[in-house]
Amino acid sequence: MAPPLIQLRSITLTFGGTPLLTGVDLTVSPSERVCLVGRNGSGKSTLLKIAAGLVEPDGGTRFVQPGATVRYLPQEPDFGDHPTTLAYVEAGLAPGDDRHPARHLMEQLGLTGDENPAHLSGGEARRAALARVLAPSPDILLLDEPTNHLDLTTIEWLERELDSRRSALVLISHDRRFLSNLSRSTAWLDRGKIKQIDRGFAAFEAWRDEVLAEEEREQHKLGRKIVDEEHWLRYGVSGRRKRNVKRLANLHALRAQKRNYRGTAGSANLAAAEAEKSGRMVIEAKGISKDFGERRIVDNFSIRIQRGDRLGIIGPNGAGKTTLVNLLTGAIAADSGSVRLGANIEMATLDQHRESLDPKVTLAEALTGGRGDHVMVGGKPKHVVGYMKDFLFAQEQRGTPLEVLSGGERGRLMLARALAKPSNLLVLDEPTNDLDLETLDVLEDMLGDYEGTVILISHDRDFLDRVVSSVVAPDGKGKWIEYAGGYSDMLAQRGSDLTRETVKAQVGEEKKEAKAAAPAQAPRRRLSFNEKHALETLPKKIDDLHADIARLQRILDDPALYAKDRKKFDEASAAMAKAQHELAAAEDRWLELEMLREEIEQA
User: Fold this and answer.
1) Which one, 3, 239, 257, 260, has least CB within 10 Å?
2) What is the pLDDT of residue 412?
């Protein structure tokens, strides 16, 4: 048997409170392909950093085979001071390494190498980071969410590229299809320890359910045994004559075992607040087209969406998925053709741009809008702590700033905000980003039970197969085609995947044509001086209003104020109402301008 490339033994780590890792063992041999799975917050990313030598554990040992090359892909790549993406990628090569593979990989991933890292989109940053770790052809690749921000075209390319390599892999991903296609063994990080099976992810979920069911049975037996021992202590004849010290000690040990048992984390309780039913026809589009400059994004597209439909929209980044959704929902007007919305439409949306939230705002403020302790869910107030628990947030996180939340926690927060609004039409842009597999299961069940209509953009093939009833995919030059069924059904009908050369060539040609035609285009819409000024000054105004509201709230929190100083109470109440009104207006204006800025930059 070949010696391991990496071996972790008895790894322990605590970040205050409950230990994160308690005696973790993980061994990775040459050419082995391990998927590392577990709930959000279970310590997967931290363990991968320990394996990469970036985090020092409290205890345990890390062994790396001498001479073995290790490359680690973080969730958030750090580009440092590198002036171009090529410089960043080549910095990952060892002295004497061939530079050609780096350039070839960048070309395969749609990068020229001249891009300024400071101006990359999420997808471009992820592709540059992938080129950096793949270029040296390392002995072991540690990949943390490698499919994040990638479109289906790139995900399928990456799958084939990794499958063709001899490198050992340790993968963290929420993409079931990606894990199933690449993994050969599964390491389950659960409550600080690892359980491992020599089977890929496809066999994991059934095995996990068996393990948890057996655990429940053992806990039930333990409970019964404690009851029996307690009964003996109280009523046993020998127990009355003379206490059996050993048996009493055993009872104490059983109680300690029961007390120290860490049960599995609960499941999210996702439920969309549903409005009254819409009309049977929800959206009808006839011959709609949309151009941006010389590039046609949508060309003569027609569709009829009825109540209860689940429509998935897929395609490479830059194909125009978000534009198509905005056309269908009336957010932007078509250049030609018509869009008709049905009767009684109540729409709730989930935007993929989660960074638009103020990072300084607390979790509770993000859910309540900074107005009191209640969230309006389906038009009815619900205490913010109870609503947080539905989405797996602890009560202690109420005052946590958004900037310290993990990607998965931000994903659950955005879902919580979107699902609180009464709706009969859900529009979800990348709803699966950063969610753990268990929360994905609950989201799928929720969408299955939702009586309204769903339109979603997703790059998660397994999620699409489980949720949607039809798929709309691009065919180049602005053409979009609807296919019945999920993603796999679309492939069967299409006869090829989204990476076929014709589509890639067409999308590439469109980008080249648009770039070449840029000098002849009409002047782009720009932000006015007043709009720029408002974008720069509104955040401070919003912060000041938050501070004023907090100060007034402290005054009004005095239960005796009304009785002892009615005038001060009335003045504080009026000032509070005014400040809350100004805050809502300022936040709405800032959001409007921020969306305008993004639209201008993406045009």
Assistant:
1) 260
2) 80
Give which of 414, 297, 316, 325 is closest to 366, Cα–Cα. Answer: 414
Distance separating alpha carbons of residues 437 and 357, to the nearest angstrom: 24
Question: Quick one: which of 296, 297, 317 has its CA closest to 153?
Answer: 317
**Residues β-bridged to residue 455:** 311, 427
Query: What's the CATH number for 281-511?
Result: 3.40.50.300
Using alpha carbons only, what angle is made at residue 132 by residues 131 and 134, rounded to the nearest 5 degrees?
Answer: 65
Q: What is the CATH number of domain 6-206?
A: 3.40.50.300
20: Cβ–Cβ under 8 A, 6 or more apart, which residues? 13, 14, 42, 43, 46, 192
**β-bridge mates for residue 185, sequence order:** 34
Instruction: Evaluate whether 524 touches 602 at the Cβ level (below 8 Å).
Output: no
- At 515 the pLDDT is 43
The span from the CA of 179 to the CA of 181, in Å, is: 6
423, two tokens: 């709706």
Q: Which residues pair with 6 in a beta bridge?
A: 28, 64
For 556, the 3-state DSSP assignment is helix
- pTM comes to 0.69
Q: Nearest to residue 87, comparing CAs of 108, 112, 62? A: 112
d(CA 274, CA 378): 7
Which one, of 177, 153, 163, lies nearest residue 500 by Cα?
A: 153
Which H or E run includes 190? strand 185-190
Same fold, 6-206 and 281-511: yes
Which CATH number does 529-602 carry? Answer: 1.10.287.380
Of 337, 351, 330, nearest to 282 (Cα)? 330
Cβ atoms within 10 Å, residue 499:
15
In sequence order, what DSSP letters do the residues of 231-265 get, joined into one string? HHHHH-HHHHHS--HHHHHHHHHHHHHHHH--PPP
Strands 6-13 and 59-64: antiparallel
Residues of the chain with pLDDT under 70: 1, 16-17, 220, 222-223, 225-271, 351-357, 378, 496-530, 598-599, 601-603
**In the 8-state DSSP scheme, what is residue 199?**
S
Q: What confidence tens digit (pLDDT) does each residue in 328-348 have?
A: 999 999 999 999 999 999 998
Domain boundaries, the chain: 6-206, 207-260, 281-511, 529-602
The rounded distance, in Å, linking the Cα atoms of 583 and 550 is 12
- Do residues 497 and 576 make contact, with C-beta atoms less than 8 angstroms apart? no
pLDDT at 603 (0 to 100): 56
Query: Whole-angstrom Cα distance, residue 424 to residue 408?
Result: 26
